[in-house]
Amino acid sequence: MVLSLVVLAWLPLGADKPLFTQAFSTGEFKARRAKVMDAIGNGVAILAGATEPAAYTKFQQGKQFFYLSGVEVPRAILLIDGRTKTSTLFLPARNSASDRSEGPLLAPGDEAARLTGIEQVADRDTFDGVVKAVAAEGRSIYFPFRSESLGAAAPDRISNHERAVAADPWDGRASKDAVFREKLRVAAPRSEILNLDPFVDRMRMIKSAEEIKIMRETTRLSSLAILESMKSAKPGMYEYEIEAIADYIFKRHNAQGIGYYALVATGTNAFWPHYHAAQSRLEDGDMVLMDYAPDVSYYTTDVTRMFPANGTFSPRQREMYGIYLKLYQALMSSIRPGPAAESLANAHKKMIAIMETFPFTDPKIKEAAERFVAGYARPRNSFGHWLGMEAHDVAGANFDGVYLSGMMLTIEPALTIPDERIYIRLEDAILITATGYENLSGSLPMEMADIEKVMKEPGLSDLWKIGK
To answer: Per the domain annotation, does 118 fall within a domain?
Structure first.
């Protein structure tokens, strides 16, 4: 990387580089902010945007901040006023040196207000005065208590990280958001600082038409990447080569990053559900698990397929995968709006009927399938985890066990034979509809005959000239 000392000509606003997201309309963000206004009453909601990266990596905004603003400017601050029903965006003043180096960003002024649809756009230096005015009235301040999610982060990973930091006697540092929240407490001692996350998390559980459009695209790219990996896979390749094929597909279609690290696991590596070392060689007779998805405009998905490294299922693999697939499809076909527990009970009945007629020849496979089915005899209130801006999207205490149209989730049950470290799992991106569900990843083969047919086709790796 070369640091240029050449003074570049001034770039006019909007030249080549979009100043505001093209993925959503301003009306989408305005409607989201309006829901927050209704929820917070006389209070104000304050969100602090992500800071500039400390490395030569592309800037990505925090998920909650982007969800309510669409603004991708480091150190931006958003204030949503429940009393006046207006919002104010605080942006750093224009940095001409940075603009000459990396291109212009949104800056305070009328153009930023026009592009974002936010009523007022002010210089960040004026934020202090606004907080003092809120503090003088003792108005409630709502702020996200969960640390910001950046890139491939997700709430469960963030929580695990924070617990590890707190428990480490040689660490214990506070997060950016915790520091900001404490500064609000000091600046507004008469104001109650309340958690904004539950309100926004509930909103994020139901996807709008614009969000569903993005979710279709990220699921399409995930499915395409896994399909191309199936075509390329063969004994002798390494897991990292399979991952590289997917990375190319994501980049080729303008994904802004990855939704989570690639899970490409050959043979017994699949027994670790989140294995991602990607250093093993595909061997003849292996089954390969692939679970990978991109980040498209701050939204991701979660899709998994398994396929034989040599392109043909062995007799034992056919029995093991065959019973799993039937049980998996019984689960998927039971999804519908309404109480999840009722749908799961229906799935369990279907599974019992399948077990009664399946022609088992291997006692260990039958035992594994029986254990799988027994797991669904116990009451549950969810088929899998949520999807959206994060692969394990927000929900938690907000879900009451009733599926509604517009919710998105995955199903990803596993069939295992622990003493052989055998692990079979599929995963699909499911959209709850008014009458049932739509499988957004349904075009990706899962039937054995379809997988074997696809794997006979040439893949991207067949075009590469590989030099070792």
So the answer is: yes
Domain that holds residue 36: 26-205
Q: Are residues 442 and 457 in the same domain?
A: yes
Query: 326-356: buried (b, 16+ CB within 10 Å) or exposed (e) per residue?
Result: bbbbbbbebbbbeebeebbebbbebbeebbe
Q: How many domains does the chain have?
A: 2
Per-residue model confidence (pLDDT) at position 465: 60
Give yes or no for a contact between 84 and 76, defined as CB atoms under 8 angstroms apart.
no
Q: Say if residue 295 is in the same domain as residue 335.
A: yes
Which residues of the chain fall below pLDDT 50?
A: 1-15, 468
pTM of the model: 0.94
The CATH code of the domain that includes 246 is 3.90.230.10
Give the torsion sign (CA, 31, 35, 38, 44): negative
Residues 291 and 333 in one domain: yes
Q: Tokens for 299?
A: 């939204």
Report the CATH number at residue 52. Answer: 3.40.350.10
How far is the C-alpha of 320 from the C-alpha of 299, rounded, in Å? 34
